[in-house]
Write a structure and sequence with these properties.
This protein has 2 domains: 152 residues, Mog1/PsbP, alpha/beta/alpha sandwich (Protein Transport Mog1p, Chain A), CATH 3.40.1000.10; 95 residues, Fructose-1,6-Bisphosphatase, Chain A, domain 1, CATH 3.30.540. Helix content is 25%, strand content 37%. It has 5 helices and 15 strands. The strands form 3 sheets. Strands 3, 4, 5, 6, 7, 8, 9 and 10 form an 8-stranded antiparallel beta sheet that branches. The longest helix has 27 residues.
């Protein structure tokens, strides 16, 4: 069937250079953008990305619950409407990052050009996601791995920020171990930066979390708290034991996880 043939072709393509992927975060969603692609529109519930060759990738978040198969079929009908002589292949049930998904391949004409589209509908806890990759038929396979990678990378911006905040807390813990060996005590954030154990960006006001270090007795407390107006939801903290935990404040931690280790 068409989707199976598509997967066979995709597996034979060269491995992409993911080192040039750029993380782009919108107000609600973030995506990894491969080299050669550029974000055209970054809306609250959708992302539009164009390639220099004329290919396009669209992501949409659609609230609501229901049957995934029915949602995917309605999505295919909607995508096909502006195309001339449009046809679609059999649906392929699959997973995207562990979430159930339905994939369709669509072919049709846009003006005088023969186009091919890969439509994927994904069921998530917060509703349905859909991604649409479109390219000329002759160039479709060349960028399909990019499209797959973008689809798999889409995540709530808050989640991306939280991962970055946890990473910074762990970096402070590592720096404190080194500083303790150097001076027999723990250091402040500014002292860690002065010794080049941390990057100066740790004091950068543009980062969506405020990272701070307070010294108490023979120990320390590092905190990462969402800055006002950002998408971060939870705060994180750690001490000299090196364990990163959710904030002890219940308003800054998931229900029942205040003060508990981050998994």
């Amino acid at each position: 069937m068409l989707p199976i043939l598509f997967l066979t072709v995709a597996l034979q393509l060269p491995s992409p250079d993911v080192s040039k992927d750029v993380q782009v975060n919108g107000r609600q969603f973030g995506v990894l953008v491969p080299y050669g692609w550029k974000v055209d529109n970054l809306h609250t519930q959708s992302i539009e990305i164009d390639h220099t060759s004329g290919a396009s990738f669209i992501f949409r978040s659609i609230r609501g619950k229901g049957n995934l198969d029915a949602f995917a079929r309605e999505g295919v009908d909607r995508v096909m409407m502006p195309l001339g002589f449009a046809t679609f292949g059999e649906p392929l049930n699959r997973k995207v990052n562990g979430a159930p998904a339905v994939q369709y391949e669509i072919q049709g004409n846009r003006l005088s050009r023969h186009r091919k589209l890969l439509y994927i509908a994904i069921a998530r806890d917060d509703g349905f996601y859909e991604t649409i990759y479109e390219n000329d038929e002759t160039n479709f396979d060349q960028l399909v791995t990019d499209a797959e990678r973008m689809a798999a990378s889409i995540e709530l911006t808050a989640v991306n920020y939280e991962r970055a905040a946890v990473s910074r807390v762990r970096s402070v813990n590592t720096a404190e171990v080194v500083y303790l060996k150097m001076y027999g005590r723990y250091g402040t954030l500014r002292e860690l930066i002065a010794e080049k154990l941390l990057n100066p960006t740790f004091e950068d006001g543009d980062f969506p979390y405020r990272v701070g270090v307070s010294l108490a007795g023979r120990g320390y407390l590092v905190t990462a708290i969402p800055a006002a107006g950002t998408a971060g939801r939870w705060a994180f903290e750690s001490q000299q034991d090196g364990v990163v935990r959710y904030s002890a404040r219940t308003s800054l931690a998931p229900r029942g996880l205040a003060g508990k280790p981050v998994q």
